[in-house]
Fold:
Amino acid sequence: MDKLTKKFRSRGHRITQSRLAITDILSRTDKPLTVSEIRRSLSQRKVTVDKVTVYRELTFLVREGIAGEVDFGEGAKRFESADRDHHHVVCVNCRRVEDVVLRHDIAAEERRIAQKKGFTITHHALEFFGLCASCR
Amino acid sequence: MDKLTKKFRSRGHRITQSRLAITDILSRTDKPLTVSEIRRSLSQRKVTVDKVTVYRELTFLVREGIAGEVDFGEGAKRFESADRDHHHVVCVNCRRVEDVVLRHDIAAEERRIAQKKGFTITHHALEFFGLCASCR
DNA sequence: TGACTGATGCAACTTAGTTGCATTATGATG
DNA sequence: CATCATAATGCAACTAAGTTGCATCAGTCA
Structure:
């Protein structure tokens, strides 16, 4: 029994077809996916899952720390595996996405802001936008 | 005739009641506003403006560089005056927003990424989330 | 004071995301 | 292996964000 299965079962959660399929889709993609992209991918695999279930599953995976949520300001959230700490560069023309690992330590900036503003900072969102080599 | 009026007229744009009211609302607020907040503010001023007009006006103001668009991942975009270069800390509980001016030069990071990824980077989005002093 | 055309309102629409409720099925237990 | 509690699901109906087409209105310039 793999690690994830164990984690789920120990918390009273079940291993279902949709859960397996959605986590698998997220783990295989190299860019964050919207709900409609995930649904398209599910139907390609002949897995029938209602959209409500997809939303609920994603909420669940984010809460469990298995998936991460990003927002490129497109009017729909995107989801990806949460295993890496990175940001993205998005081509505003072709929507190509590449991962970016910052050189600078944002955590230090967060501590400074927390100190100055009296906030407890839990997370941040940082995405870069522009044109990729082929769209330029 | 003020500077903005001049700018508008020179480009063939007109000074209308909605345009004046919306730019005024944005200039007076200390936090970015959603379309529905702007509409609420408009009706408080007894200015009747259709929601379509508000959307079109905001698109216009962003295109003209007068307003800026931010997205806190709430499912609705927010708009603010575009005069300052800053980011935000958002309290996830009470939605209080404070401006943040970064100490670190993001532009340098952008240049590094552009170089490495072959992108031309035009802009970025950076927001911090957490709990404010009173919500903690 | 026209007339050109930018701005507006209305209706109708698309799409993202949510909620309530009845039903199904996973997996722990005896 | 059968049972059962409840996690997960599907469906229908809904809310809210944002968009489009088109006829009409109203700033602005000459």
Observations:
- The longest strand of chain A covers residues 120-131.
- Helices of chain A lie at 3-10, 17-28, 35-44, 51-63, 106-117.
